[in-house]
Amino acid sequence: MKEYINRLSLGKFRYDIPDIIKPDDVVRADVLCGTYSEEQLHIQASDVIKGVVYSSDSRVVIKNGAFIGRECNITYIADARELQDKESIEGRFTIVSDAGEKDIAYIITGYSMKAQTSLGMGDDLFHFTNIVQKSREEAAVLYRSESFKSIFLKNDENLINLYESLYDSENVYESMEEFLIAIKKKSPLTFKMDTQTRTYSLSQEGEKDSLIIEKSGWGYIELEVECDADYIKMKRGTLNSDDFVGDIYELEYLIDYSRLHNGNNYTSICVRSYGHEEQIDLIIYKENKETDIDEKNDGFDIRMEQRSARIALTQAYMAFRMKRIDREQWISDTGKMLTRVRGLKESDIVFDVFQAGLDFIAGNVFDGKQILENIKDKILTDVSSHVELYCLYLYVSTLERKDALYTSDVSQIVSRYYDNGYDTWVLLWILFYIDGQIEHNKSIKLIRIKDSFNNGCTSPVMYIEALNIYNEQPDLLRVMNRFEIQVISEGIKYGVISERLARQAAEVIGNEKTAGMSDIELLKRLYESYEEDNILEALIVHMIRTGIADEESFTYYEKAVLRGIRITRLYEFYMASIKKDIKLRLPKIVLMYFTYDSGVNYPWKSYLYANIVYNNELYKEVYDSYKHIIELYVYEQLKQENIDSNLVYLYKKFIKP
Question: Which of 267, 460, 577, 632 could be a cystine partner for 554, CB 3.0 to 4.6 Å?
């Protein structure tokens, strides 16, 4: 204005007022979210003009608003720190000049940083998941890139803690798989295989066979294949997704005849991934050559053969009761085993009873009747000396007659023996299937099984009977004593614990004020099977109460931290159990927790501080909060003349000569 008055005083008049050539109706700019962005507004006039520019929104700041000239570039800074993707700042620039006043609208739109991929530009975990599904190699490059956290994780602290805990895995594909599962972007890749027991009868040479492993879902999987028998020749060790053709992998194995011993050979092939296991049992019978039959009794232990047959029959029955094999397979496998053991020179009559029962179940009524008729006199001659055999005989006879009154009479006879000193698990098992009152009342059945256990019964058949009840009605599991622990352990061993029962078991143990090591080990195995947060929480609570802080327990504390589970003293036990390597990167949430110095001189405090100092470039956000605390700690430790490897490192960093 002063310049304008001076010009008038000198008699210099201007009759033509310049025009501001208005730029676009709306000034538009795209800026990166979370940043400041410097942009320019171009002003053009028909002649030299002088003026100043203002912005209506405080997030758009004019760097130097004054201008003079015919064409001018006005620099402004857009503050997009709080701007979300596709969110806009809308306002106006006001130009005040000697050519008049003009308003220019502006729209400044935020955008997220994106990555160029084979599926186009992407910036979210949904897009990344699609890349993993399309090309694991391309996804691995993105996953290991420096921009992964800012582009795909949006600097989310929880996601970054999880990502960093998995980042150092030697297998990037396994790391990506676990990451996507943890954030619920995919389900774990599972597998299945035929687990029906396989039986072989070999007389002269070995046999080649194969096992089909079928995976379901997409992603990366590693399987461990094991077999402890040296007579099974097969690929052992690790398989991964690349070994599959489509969803199928054919595991071939060869039975080495020369390494088999005479009679039955028992082994299994186990295939496991993290949290899942499948097992197939193999029963291989090696026959002697005909020229050796006369020499058979030289060193051949018939009692051992009969004992092996009992074990095999029990295993086959359990597989059937656990629904790992169907009824037809069980009948077939059991029939082969009975044919073999009944062919020995000195066969136990109990195997004849088993065969008769199997015949009735399979519908071979005539054969079953013939066997019962042939052994009837032997069994009835001296009942008092073999009560268990007699009761088995009576039970099998009920399968033949199928008469309710006769079955009731047999039930009374067996009950009388059971209640008068012959309380074996075999008689109890018989009662389960002929006494309707027990069979239909699950609580009574459980009480009977538990009483039998307390009296010394260790039969896995009884454990499976109890387990089937618990799986069907988990609410019947109300305490966790020796019996319950044994039953649940048996279920975990065979992989037949239902998810509802696993949760119930964790809840029961979790409600206990104290837990023994058997309870804690049980919770570990349950968590490995289902990875449920409530199971992990119960496990962590009791591990802390028990004071468990070894390196083996760190896995569980780490999972609890990353899952965001809130438990008193969790972070302290996390630090106490971690491997004391200062190069390891600690989750930010752990660092934030210990920012407040409680004054407690934890044994691992020097490690924590040494780790923070060593990784200070990675911990920029929290290092300043720690620096003074660490300095005070170092001088205090030096004054007390304390020393360890971590303190040596800290002394070198903070104590100057």
Answer: 577
Which one-letter amino acid corresponds to residue 134?
Answer: K
Which of 12-21, 118-127, 402-411 is most confident? Answer: 402-411
Tell which of 133, 155, 186 closes a domain. Answer: 186
Which domain, by its residues, includes 16? 2-111
Give the residue among 243, 264, 116, 277 at the shortest CA–CA distance from 199.
264
Whether 180 and 94 map to the same domain: the answer is: no
> Which residues fall within 8 angstroms of residue 590, CB to CB, at 6 or more apart?
561, 571, 574, 575
What is the DSSP code (8-state) at residue 215?
E
> Same structural domain for residues 40 and 71?
yes
pLDDT digits (tens, 9 = 90+) for 611-633: 999 999 888 888 888 888 888 88
> In this structure, what DSSP letter does residue 188 have?
P
Give residues with Cβ within 8 angstroms of 252, minimum separation 6: 208, 209, 210, 211, 234, 235
- The shares of helix, strand and coil residues in the chain, as percent rounded to the nearest 5, are 50, 20, 30
* pTM for the structure as a whole: 0.57
Burial class (CB in 10 A: 0-12, 13-18, 19+), 646: buried
Higher-pLDDT residue of 10, 268 = 268
Clarify whether residues 135 and 101 are in a common domain: no
Ranked by mean pLDDT, the top range of 262-266, 321-325, 360-364 is 360-364
Verify that 101 and 124 share a domain, yes or no: no
One-character DSSP codes across 547-586: T--SGGGHHHHHHHHHTT---TTHHHHHHHHS---TTSPP
Query: Which of 43-56 are b and which e, b meaning 16 or more Cβ less than 10 Å from the residue's Cβ?
Result: bebeeebebebebe
What distance in Å separates the CA atoms of residue 39 and residue 580, rounded to the nearest whole number? 49
**What angle, rounded to 10 degrees, do the helices at 554-562 and 533-546 form?**
130
- Tell me if 41 is assigned to some domain: yes
b/e string for 141-152 if b means 16 or more Cβ within 10 A?
Answer: ebbeeeebbebb
Torsion angle (degrees, nearest 10) of CA 608, 613, 616, 620: 70
So what's the pLDDT on residue 237?
80
